[in-house]
Design goal:
Helix content: 25-40%
Number of strands: 14
Shape: globular
Distance between the termini: 52 Å
Strand order of the largest sheet: 10-9-8-11-12-14-13
Order of helices and strands: EHEEHEHEEEHEHEHEEHEHEE
CATH superfamily of the largest domain: Vaccinia Virus protein VP39
CATH class of the largest domain: Alpha Beta
């Protein structure tokens, strides 16, 4: 049975949601792959024990009032908790749901996501921001690139909204396996080209520029990748970027401005910001 390195975080008092988001953003540099809420806090999962231990050290050194504990969690335990906790989430005209979810009270297009060790169930604000912005632009018949696809939720949503094809890339083999399973659950495998790798190496010489580029990453990664994301996008296209803390928004906006793109729309949920970038006049 596979066991996943995990870091359990608990608070000595009531959990401050804004404070929780700041802790999670700080620990994002260590590559957590999933989050599970607990009665007293959260549990983060990592691909390697070394990354988990480094994250624990960061919590101990920089976050007073937060207690961290290292764990190794069986995969079955993760699945059981996920099935008990996750329910469908409505995001405007979409509903992101686990396979067992009751979507009867929703009217949106269903996007089925099997909980796994990858982010992207629709329960995090950054995913919802991407999904909302995606529904504000023309998507029917267009080509899509999903960078850091995780569970594949954004690529799947784009195809279900009418995109002609999507390329979904991720550097994590576990994430691409999760995405593959979700593509099959949604019967969209024929329209999504799933690849292991990062920009720009995961793209092929035969790939055209994409009409829509989706990137739910982190603020620092988006700022660094801005030239590559712009390079992958068609001149008349759109880039949707999320995973950005409000404190990082100016840095991300400046990085895309330096690449010749501007903010056409932005949304905020809690401490998270999502941007829609286009070229001026596009």
């Amino acid at each position: 049975m596979r066991r996943y390195p995990a870091l359990e975080l608990t608070w000595s008092g009531p959990i401050d949601r804004d404070g929780l988001d700041l802790v999670l953003a700080d620990l994002d540099d260590f590559g957590p792959t999933a989050l599970d809420e607990t009665p007293d806090g959260v549990r983060l999962f990592f691909l390697a024990a070394a990354a988990r231990d480094a994250a624990l050290a960061r919590v101990s050194d920089h976050h007073a009032g937060v207690q961290g504990r290292a764990l190794d969690v069986p995969d079955e335990a993760w699945a059981e908790r996920s099935q008990a906790a996750l329910q469908p989430v409505g995001v405007d005209g979409l509903v992101v749901t686990p396979p067992w979810g009751d979507v009867g009270r929703f009217t949106g297009v269903p996007v089925i996501v099997q909980p796994s060790m990858g982010f992207g169930t629709g329960h995090h604000a950054s995913t919802r921001l991407c999904l909302r912005l995606l529904q504000t632009i023309p998507i029917a018949g267009r080509s899509v690139l999903d960078v850091g696809t995780g569970s594949g939720v954004l690529a799947i949503a784009a195809v279900k909204l009418g995109a002609a094809r999507a390329v979904a890339i991720d550097v994590d083999p576990d994430a691409t396996q999760s995405a593959l399973e979700n593509l099959q659950l949604n019967d969209v495998s024929s329209k999504v080209d799933l690849r292991l790798g990062a920009l720009p190496g995961a793209l092929e010489a035969s790939d055209p520029r994409f009409d829509v580029v989706l990137a739910n990453l982190t603020g620092s990664v988006l700022a660094r990748l801005a030239p590559d994301l712009v390079g992958a996008a068609a001149a008349s296209g759109a880039i949707i970027a999320s995973g950005i803390l409000a404190a990082e928004a100016a840095e991300v906006g400046d990085a895309f401005a330096a690449a010749g793109w501007h903010v056409a729309d932005q949304r905020r949920e809690q401490e998270w910001v999502g941007f829609l970038f286009t070229q001026p006049g596009a």
